Amino acid sequence: MAFYQYGLAGARRRAVLAGVLAAPALWTGARAQGPWPSRDLVPWPSRPTRFIVPYPPGGPTDIMGRVVATQLSRDLPHPVVVENKAGAAGSIGSAEVARASPDGTTFLVNASAHVIVPHMMRLPYDAVADFAPVTNIAMVPLMLVVTPGLPVHSVAELVAYAKANPGRLSYASSSNGGAPHLAGELFKQLAGVEMQHVPYRGSGQALPDLLAGNVQVMFDSMPSSAGAVRDGKLRALAVTTEGRQPAFPELPTVAEAGVAGYEISTWYGIWAPPRTPAGIVGALQQAVAHALRQPEPQARMAALGAVPVADTPAHYARFVETEYARWGQLVTSANIRAD
Predict the structure, then answer these.
(1) 3-140+266-334: which CATH architecture?
(2) Which of 90, 152, 302, 313 is the most exposed place for a label (fewest CB within 10 A)?
(3) 180-192 pLDDT per residue, tens
(4) Parallel, antiparallel, or unpaired for β 132-146 and 235-239?
């Protein structure tokens, strides 16, 4: 099955980013008294804001949430605190946000898994209707990484090894049905290989087993595995995007390395509880856009290979609906079910 049916094709990704760049200025008229002008325009909460991350600490979603929260804590009247509420494929933390008071004190930070998991299991909320989209933080490539003990140094060698050793390779993922899992399923389909899927509760739990060689392969988010790759603890074979990535320019794409038609990315965004006032949603989106233009978050994003987006709530809402339908097609075609 051709990946253009549900892949993040280059033309569509360019259209998404073009829509962001063409949008009106997202941060204008900063006032002399501080970096957060909107606090004078909306009733900003008088207590700390919570970013609920529905996975354990250390994974890519947690990393993204903390990059944004750290800068927002400098810009907003009160701190932004990241709380990890893991379990049930991210649905425990997500359900808490769906039920939260729409007062601007609680938000969800999640990956594209937010629109994937609903196609695999029944949830106590509607992933689209029961949340107010705030903004897409960033688009992030995945890396195809292997444990250093595996005797492969390229995608072609990995494919050859898998075919010569059917059933012996296993690939880890941060969760059943997440983008890293689907990246592995797509690789199996297009490369014609068999690998066993081993899901974990977040990349932070998967990486130690990969480093130890208990699993051999992973399609991991670049923010999660970049440090281990640079330290020589993991071997990167390719990136999953249409083009090479500035953070690792020496790495070919999976398609360039011989698996024709392969392309997949993930993304990380922010949602508010339903019925959150538009003024608060818009104010947080502007604050995130401002935060992602500051030197420290920009440097962190660049090092992680992430492309900041910070689009408007309306643009993000349309994007989420499109992604919900796209990922649903891949889940169905791969016959993926919840644990």
Answers:
(1) 3-Layer(aba) Sandwich (3.40)
(2) 302
(3) 899 999 899 899 9
(4) antiparallel
